[in-house]
TrEMBL record:
GO terms for cellular component: cytoplasm. Keywords: Carbohydrate metabolism, Hydrolase. It comes from the Bacteria. The lineage of its organism: Bacteria, Bacillati, Bacillota, Bacilli, Bacillales. Catalyzes the reversible isomerization-deamination of glucosamine 6-phosphate (GlcN6P) to form fructose 6-phosphate (Fru6P) and ammonium ion. It comes from Mesobacillus subterraneus. InterPro entries: Glc/Gal-6P_isomerase, Glucosamine6P_isomerase, Glucosamine6P_isomerase_CS, NagB/RpiA_transferase-like. It holds the Pfam family Glucosamine_iso. This is Glucosamine-6-phosphate deaminase. One of its GO terms (biological process) is glucosamine catabolic process.
Length: 241
């Protein structure tokens, strides 16, 4: 794993965005894996700014999001569909039918997991996957204990994850209890991975990732086994290294 330390969240966002843009410029048909949450929003802002200024085009790009809440309609402002439209898709020239996110309202959720997994593979797999990390080490919504060989699946969200994400809802009760997430093996099948880590609240998780053992109890530790991972961490997140 290569670690890039930056002095601020803004610099982290700029540096990660610059690398993403260079991957898009050398492969106009890049399959780009995306994450939601607070951490990547700065990168998305940079991608939008660059698209406006430099006309980097997403017309042939396909995107694949990591996860989606179960039981939240796409049009609901709490859905990750909505989040991605607001924070990225509506501001660049990507055709919406090339943006892919698991359907958390599918009638048959198990079937939806299989479909999503196969769909990614039929598209040739993910070239570059963007990840954030949970304080408990989750990647995607793969909570501690998720098997390393898991593919896209239904997961019960950890209470700590629901609490952390309750900032996007009116109350903790409203936060869904389940989500569909790409599995650990699905994520590890990506050709390249960028892990974005920002803020003091992630310092312990980053220190555990860098210095701790590879264990299913700390899902992000699996990234040590991947040949092409770059971690972008700001000073606050890197404070315990
Ligand atoms: C989001 C996702 C999660 C987040 C993680 C960190 O699609 O898969 O793993 O990346 O929960 O979230 P933030 O960035 O809000 O701290």
């Amino acid at each position: 794993m290569k670690l890039i330390r930056t002095t601020s969240y803004e610099e982290l966002s700029q540096q990660a965005a610059a690398e993403i843009i260079s991957r898009i410029q050398s492969n106009h048909r890049l399959n780009l894996g995306l994450a939601t949450g607070s951490t990547p929003t700065g990168v998305y802002k940079q991608l939008i700014e660059d698209h406006k200024k430099n006309k980097t085009s997403y017309k042939e790009i396909n995107t694949f999001n990591l996860d989606e809440y179960i039981g939240i309609a796409k049009k609901d402002p709490h859905s990750y569909h909505y989040f991605m439209c607001e924070n990225l898709f509506h501001h660049i020239d990507i055709p919406l039918d090339q943006t892919h996110i698991p359907d958390g309202t599918a009638k048959d959720l198990k079937e939806e997991c299989l479909r999503y997994e196969q769909f990614i593979q039929e598209h040739g797999g993910i070239d570059l996957q963007i990840l954030g990390i949970g304080q408990n080490g989750h990647i995607g919504f793969n909570e501690p204990g998720t098997p390393f060989d898991s593919r896209t699946h239904i997961i019960m969200l950890a209470e700590s994850t629901r609490k952390a994400n309750s900032r996007f809802f009116d109350s903790l009760e409203e936060v869904p209890k389940q989500a569909i997430t790409m599995g650990i093996a699905s994520i590890m099948a990506s050709m390249e991975i960028f892990l974005l880590v920002s803020g003091t609240s992630k310092a312990e998780a980053l220190a555990r990732l860098m210095n701790g053992a590879v264990s299913e109890q700390f899902p992000a530790s699996v990234l040590k086994k991947h040949p092409n991972v770059t971690i972008f961490a700001d000073n606050e997140a890197a404070a315990l290294l």
